[in-house]
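HUMAN: Would you supply a protein with fold tokens?

ASSISTANT:
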Amino acid sequence: MLIPSATFSEAVAELSTIRDFIRFTVTCLRAADVHIGHGSEDPFAEANALVMQSLSLQWSADAEILDAKLLSSEKQAIVELIDKRVNQRIPLGYLLNLAYFCGHPFYVDERVLIPRSPIAELINNRFVDYIEQEPQRILDLCTGSGCIAIALAHAFPDAIVDGTDISLDALSVAAVNVEHHNLIENVNLIESDLFSKLPNQRYDLIVSNPPYVDAQDMADLPNEYQKEPELALAAGADGLDIVRQILAQAAEHLTEDGLLVVEVGNSEWALAQEFSDVPFTWIEFEKGGSGVFALTAEQCRQYQQLFKD
């Protein structure tokens, strides 16, 4: 269902306050059955972000400001965003050029995925229960916008973080974010097809949110996800084309007591079936999410030949 332009004109003419437009945005999102899944599944949170960011206000602004009246030009700017979000199904992150990950703001556009990963919970908890010593060298494979690499650098300020990606477009976005976060000395961005440009490099922690969407899921993606770069999503028939390569090579790039953490999303079942003898640690998240495994360096070495075969 599309929202007609007459409805937007009526909203500009008759609605007055910030609260009015947050409510109106929620109604539009629900009436049009818009898919919400880029960092939140709550239409109220999405509506709040859309309206507040349009007005250059903090998303968590005091409740008193919600009854402030809007200028006609401000109303028009809001309904134009709603039109693009609802009728063109452009994800909110692209409309605002902004997304949050681990509580940090990131610039995003159509060259990268909009940040979203349960790995954020691991980073916020500084990988408690999974590592005993603070990592000194960290690798973020398939860094995209750089959100994981940058969040890791914030969590472990004494570490050097390498972020790799095969996409120069993605690395251009990541460079904007590294500079914005003043982490040029801490985060190195490298154009590399996984480990190909990292000979003889070893890391205490390797984290990756690689492409893992299988062919069936790619065909069924909501319109919003189809706006994102296919290169960052599609990973073959079973979604494991990239993950297999990571598993086959990880042992050669981990320190003696290093740790590998990889998100595979809905391809968890396929991975567990293919490597049924491998004791993956499937991480349970308090705040929701699944499909993330951990393997120690010792396990990566033990099963490396199986992964290569």
Notes: DSSP finds 14 helices and nine strands in the chain. Residues 5 and 239 are 40 Å apart (CA to CA). The two ends are 49 Å apart (CA to CA).
